[in-house]
Write a structure and sequence with these properties.
Length: 390
């Protein structure tokens, strides 16, 4: 029998996370592969979800999300980023950021349209672009002289052309921990306007920029000329440590939000109604929640970074997100996939190779990613094990 899967999806095997998490279970390794926290989010949010569940909020919510959540999303964007949104027309709730990304690409791209993105990319990007019959035009992020990931301006300019439909930008960036600077964003904004392209921004780590980052988080939608052509996507999962909830959202001009919703209504229609009022509560938490969350992650980043350095790896700077990448060559590694298959057997720690997130795999062959969104004692145990490497 031939493979029933459509041809264009055949290059997408089971994800590296499935393989590495299975390896962690089999070897009893500390899993710093997949990026999910091992503690719960804010108690107020959990209590609100329990209450909603017990008080009958269990039927289909409106397509665009319950009004209380849309209002909370708009207020949050105003509070942190100064972006005023009309909760009735410019905000929509989705089944995680992942669905918002897929629905947006399916809604905006004709077959053959091109999507400019940066590699390494979040794994759903390539799949969503392919599902739409669109073509990805990746621009490579490479560690520069300071270790900070950079892109080449000429390469970015060359990625744009007559078929460019949109730019898909993730900042703060998974897996590199890069936070795009105002200068970089300004160039992206100019090219979008020059080529009349849309921008779709994945800002799920908007609250995870560390105090030693070169710059703070800047939403592309706030740059001159970009508001009208940018759909901004985020999610509760990372900010409120509830990655299993899959409550995300998209904000932007009404015509982009409604195009996304046109597709979204036939993918999931709506998502988990009792979680929506709970996320509304979380978005309204005082600033101290957000600053405490960032500081807590930064402290755990520092623990892991010093352990990785002691183990003899070259650690590239992580300015934000849940992740840090390292160069394995000082330990004699040349291929991240082989290294990550060997590491749990050798010392009981799981990481993920980032080369699988590139089209130009050679650019990332020597790089692997560790997640530090884990309890301090879990990170300390990983560090103890990594010390045995040298
Ligand atoms: C985790 C993650 C997502 C997925 O968010 P969900 O709300 O769980 O769908 C999207 N983009 C990036 C860069 C992520 O790291």
């Amino acid at each position: 029998m031939t493979d029933p899967l459509v041809e264009r999806m055949r290059p997408f095997g089971t994800t590296i996370f499935t393989e590495m998490s299975a390896l962690a279970v089999r070897t009893g390794a500390v899993n710093l592969g997949q990026g999910f926290p091992d503690t719960d989010g804010p108690a107020e949010m959990l209590a609100a979800a329990a209450e909603a569940l017990a008080s009958g909020a269990n039927q289909y919510p409106p397509l665009a999300g319950i009004p209380a959540l849309r209002t909370a999303i708009a207020a949050h964007e105003q509070r942190f980023w100064g972006l005023g949104r009309d909760p009735d027309a410019e905000v929509a709730v989705t089944a995680g950021a992942t669905e918002a990304i897929a629905a947006t690409i399916l809604a905006l791209c004709e077959a053959g349209d091109e999507v400019v993105c940066f590699e390494p990319y979040y794994d759903s990007y390539a799949a969503s672009i392919t599902l739409a019959g669109a073509v990805r035009r990746p621009v490579t992020l490479r560690p520069g002289p300071t270790g900070r990931y950079e892109f080449d301006e000429g390469e970015l300019r060359a990625a744009f052309g007559p078929r460019t439909r949109l730019v898909l930008l993730n900042t703060p960036h998974n897996p590199t921990g890069k936070v795009f600077t105002r200068a970089e964003l300004t160039l992206i904004a100019e090219l979008c306007q020059q080529h009349d392209a849309y921008a779709v921004t994945d800002e799920v780590y908007e609250h995870l920029v560390f105090s030693d980052a070169a710059e703070t988080h800047i939403p592309l939608a706030g740059l001159p000329g970009m508001r009208e052509r940018t759909l901004r996507i985020s999610s509760a999962g990372k900010t409120f440590s509830c990655t299993g909830w899959k409550v995300g959202w998209a904000t932007g001009p009404a015509r982009l939000v409604s195009a996304m919703l046109r597709v979204k209504q036939f993918l999931t229609f709506v998502n988990a109604s009792p979680l929506q009022p709970a996320v509304a509560v979380a978005l309204g938490l005082p600033d101290s929640y957000f600053t405490g969350f960032t500081a807590g992650l930064q402290e755990r980043r520092d623990r892991l970074v010093s352990g990785l350095t002691d183990a003899g790896l070259t650690v590239l700077p992580s300015e934000g997100t849940y992740f840090v990448t390292v160069d394995i060559r000082p330990l004699g590694g040349t291929d991240g996939i082989e290294f990550c298959r060997w590491l749990p057997e050798r010392c009981g720690v799981v990481a993920v190779p980032t080369q699988v997130f590139y089209d130009h795999q050679d650019a990332g062959r020597h790089l692997i990613r560790f997640a530090f969104c884990k309890r301090a004692e879990v990170i300390d145990e990983a560090v103890r094990r990594l010390k045995t490497l040298n």
